[in-house]
Amino acid sequence: MYHRMKLKPYTPSLTPLHVRIYPPWKKLILSGTNMFALPSMAFVGMGYLRSLDLGKGKLKSIENDSFAGMTALEFLDLSSNRLTTVRREIFEPLTRIQKIILAKNKFLYLPTTSFQGLRSLQVLDFTSNRINKIGVTWDIPSLQTLDLTSNRLFRIADAAFYGLPNLTELAISLNPINTIKNNAFIGIENLQTLTLQTLDHVGSGGGRPFRNLTHLITLDLSGSNMNPNTVFFKGLTFLKMLKLRKTSLTPSKLWNNLRNVSVLDTLVGLEYLSLSSNSLNGLIPRTFQNLTSLTRLLLEKCGIIELPVGLLKNLASLRYLYLTHNNIKVLSASHFFGLQSLGTVLFDNNAIKELEVDLFKHTPKISYVYFPHNLISVVQRGTILPTVMLDLSNNPLSCVCDLQWFLSYLDTNILILVNPNNTICSPTSIQRFIGKRLLSSRPDSHDCGPNIILLAFIPFIVLGLIFVVAVTYYYRWKINYKFFYLKLAVLGFIEFEDAREHQDFRHDLNVIYHDDDEEWVERVFQPGIDNALPEFQRIAYGDRDLVIGMFYMDAVIDLVENSFKVAFIVSNTAIRDHSFINKFHMAVDHMNEVGFEKLVLVFVEDIPDNHLPYLMRLFLSKNKPYFLWTENRDWQIFFWAKFAKLMKANKQINDTLPT
Questions:
Q1: Cβ contacts of residue 564 below 8 Å, gap of 6+?
Q2: Which contacts qualify for 611-619: CB closer than 8 Å, 24 or more apart?
Q3: Is the pLDDT of residue 292 over 90?
Q4: What average pLDDT score do residues 274-282 get?
Q5: What mean pLDDT comes out for the span 95-124?
Q6: Which of 127, 315, 398, 621 could form a disulfide with 428 if both were Cys (CB 3.0 to 4.6 A apart)?
Q7: Where is pLDDT greater, at 98 or 611?
Q8: For the TIR domain, which residue ranges apply (predicted)?
Q9: In a domain, 618, yes or no
């Protein structure tokens, strides 16, 4: 039976309440009274009362024996009054009390000792007070729920809730908390739900405030300013639900580049994760790498422009994916690789322009797909579609002939089109379908007849192909030549060298020069050879080592043939000397005869191309080796290094290479 009665404020002129026998009421509502004080023995005779509502009043004080005799009371509502403190004696008669609501009063201090001895108390509500300090002594083993939302707590000290061993739900949201000590939650290891919404700052430094909450199942930090470290969530082995909505998180806060780990790596049992309303464009692909048990992921309103490939690949248990209100432009099958359990995806309000044909080839269980308010214009033939529902409303769909197959597919009733009244044909549709519902826009043979423009261009296409074939045949040799160049550039070629080394010849090197260049050879070239090629000890310089008893030209030829390398010192004086050119001619003939590039030119000065003898220009045009001497000391070091390298072997002449 419910009974509501209005009490006048108690004053000294009123006579004390006398003992009366009331009906066995179970619930009494006295909210909205004008009493400033609750009198002594106010409820004597109401021993059967289980629920008492004194909320929305003006109470400032309660007598120690106001609730005397209320041994059956289980629920007490004192919310929305003007209480600033309560004493232990007030609640001592309430031996069966289970829930006390003291919300919206004016408490500055939470008097923990006032509730000692209440062995049946399960819920204590102090929301919307002015509490800035919590008492140091709790002793309420039966308490299961404590709500301190909307107060003025700045810090949670060590062991702040010690003495509440069976507490399973704790709410401390909307407090200006900037410090949570590492042992703040010691003693409440059975806590299952912790709500810490809209805190000033949490997670900086190397703190681990949740390390004692080994049985925590739900953690809500939404609206808080977070900067978590890599061990912030360590120890939350049984955590199933984590809400981090609007927590100032960024990709760099979720991934530690120094340790190459994710802040979320320790949450291997997590099933629900909300990161919505954070700035998360550019997420590191391995951010969710250890969340193999995750079934629901929310990334709504995160400013994501490009979804990283590989971000979701380890989420084998994921069933629901929310990516609404972002700016994603492109989706591909690689984004959903490994999501074998995915059944529902929501991509509302993005900038997706098309659905790739194989977008869902890696998601065999896909059933519900929502793409409203995007930029999709067509569903290509053969696109893998969900099995139950598809939402393409408020997209600029182009109702043209290419969409016939999709309409036929919808006719099978296998797939339900969600919100069909807002699935409208765009201005790019066939004229008579613009602005109409997709399901009522059926192109027929009149709309989808043969393409006259394409038919008209067929003769031109055929003529073009004939012309291309004719031109290709006419220039086949030049084309083949160019392809040969390309083959050399890509595949390269094999070089062969003379198996003989310099020890197998009478002379290691034969140096041929004009008499006017002898001074340069003795001053520069000969010392350089000695330093660069110390192993070359048998070097013939000029005519000094010609075989005695032979004709001059025969002796020159003999020296060339029996030398491992032949070097010609070229100068302006030398190229005007017929004897020098004849020697060069004989050396080239010998080189062509043996088939190895044993000849090298050393220019002691720069000579214009049009001054060079024809045979020498022809020699150089074949990419044959030559060197130009310079007075620059750095270049001289380079000169001798290259010269020494060339002297090591004789390469076989390859006439198939282009010049």
A1: 500, 501, 502, 504, 505, 507, 508, 509, 598, 650
A2: 611/572, 611/575, 612/575, 613/575, 613/581, 613/584, 615/581, 615/584, 615/585, 615/588, 616/570, 616/575, 616/581, 616/584, 619/588
A3: yes
A4: 96
A5: 96
A6: 398
A7: 98
A8: 505-647
A9: yes
* Of the candidate ranges 185-194, 317-326, 399-408, the one whose mean pLDDT is the lowest: 399-408
Are 516 and 641 in a shared domain?
yes
Q: At what angle do helices 614-621 and 578-594 cross, to 10 degrees?
A: 30
- What mean pLDDT is reported for the chain? 87
- C-alpha to C-alpha distances, 206 to 209, 216, 314, nearest whole angstrom: 10, 20, 28
Q: Which residues of 584-616 are buried (b: 16+ CB within 10 A; e: fewer)?
A: beebbebbeeeebbbbbbbbbeebeeeebbeeb
Query: Taking Cα atoms as reference points, which of 114, 10, 120, 32 lies closest to residue 77?
Result: 32
* Same domain as 462, residue 515: no
Domain that holds residue 566: 502-652
Mean pLDDT over 535-557 rounds to 81
Q: What is the mean pLDDT of residues 290-297?
A: 96
Residues 4 and 113 in one domain: yes
Q: How many CB atoms lie within 10 A of CB 5?
A: 8
**Confidence label for 13 from pLDDT (cuts 50, 70 and 90):** very low
| Token pair of 371 as six digits | 């793409």
Residues 277 and 301 sit within 8 Å (Cβ to Cβ): yes
User: Looking at the structure, do residues 15 and 137 belong to the same domain, yes or no?
Assistant: yes
Residues 41 and 103 in one domain: yes
Residue 541: which H helix or E strand, with range? strand 539-541
Neighbours of 18 (CB within 10 A): 8
Structure tokens at 228: 């978590």
In a domain, 27, yes or no: yes
Q: Does 143 share its domain with 13?
A: yes
Please check whether residue 284 lies inside any domain of the structure: no
